[in-house]
Amino acid sequence: MPSLRKWLLSGLLVLVPLIITLWVLDWVVGTLDQTLRILPTHWHPDQVLGVHIPGLGVVFALAVVLTIGALASNIIGNRLVNWWHALLHRIPVVRSIYSGVKQVSDTLFSEKGNAFRKAVLVRWPHEGMWTIAFLTGSPAGQVLSTLRDQPGARAGDEAFISVFVPTTPNPTGGYFVMVRQRDCVELAMTVDEALTYIVSMGVIVPGSGRGNAPPAVLPAIPKP
Q1: Cα–Cα distance for residue pair 151/191, rounded to 1 Å
Q2: Segment 90-117 mean pLDDT
Q3: 120: which strand partners?
Q4: What is the pLDDT of residues 160-190, one digit of tens each?
Q5: Separation in Å, CA 198 to CA 16, 133, 204, 207
């Protein structure tokens, strides 16, 4: 019985990640294949080739994204994009949704942004407990001045940072919080390693078996 249980666990450790990976890839490919529906029926690869080839939707979606990116990078394309943004911002309901999504996407995909560039330790949900969070930026304006006026804040220009605290084991959900910079500790691990640590609920320890640099106090963040 001990041997059977060991073999069963070993088999699950091999098969479960493989099956989940294949399932996710199948879902992604199947979803992107639906983008071919925007083409006229007589242009569908199934009609032209006479056989269904999985994955052509991925190539088509990538080509569309690259084409739109190339067009938006020139002067004429940039003006069209700005006109499109202005049009969407004039539609009442669409304006609220589109502006919020665009701000998030601009922050995440901007080459100059600080979103999810560093993993830090923060006291969460209360003193004496720690969790991993990701640096997203720093508060400013009225929010920053209000934070500095709260009890316990040091005199002068005390620094605060904005972090995203993901949930476990699904890091797509979480909490946006603002904390004192002096209460955070920067981790000597990449964002990918921190995500792996979170998803595995602490089972997979980043840097195990190799020396890690000691954690350091988070450096100063440039003002926006």
Answers
A1: 33
A2: 71
A3: 133, 186
A4: 889 999 988 888 788 999 988 888 898 988 8
A5: 18, 10, 9, 14
